[in-house]
Amino acid sequence: MNEFKTTVDNLSESNVCERTLVGVDEAARILHKSKHTIYQWVRRGEIPCYKIGKNLLFRKDELAAFIGICRIFITPN
Fold it and tell me: Which CATH number characterizes residue 47's domain?
């Protein structure tokens, strides 16, 4: 999780659009995953989110950082 925090801290503070909060539907669209998968990741603490009332919200910049730390490199044979 340290790698995630470092990635988020390095993002530009001036890019307010990327810091916009989105709901579960939009987060699922951004990550190309089902809402069910998003809820599983939230329960397991794998993805950062905010809970305001009954709503789960996600910052776009944190979703981008999450995608970045999930990246793998495959070397050709």
Answer: 1.10.1660
pTM score, whole prediction: 0.70
Are 24 and 35 a contacting pair, CB within 8 Å? Answer: yes
* Residue ranges making up the domain that contains 34: 2-69
Q: 74 in a domain, yes or no?
A: no
Instruction: Give the three-class secondary structure for 52.
Output: strand
> Exposed (0-12), middle (13-18) or buried (19+): which is 18, by Cβ within 10 Å?
middle
Per-residue pLDDT of the chain (77 residues; tens, 9 = 90+): 555 555 555 555 545 555 789 999 999 999 999 999 999 999 999 999 999 999 999 999 999 999 988 888 888 87
d(CA 35, CA 55): 13
Alpha carbon distance 22, 5 (integer Å): 19
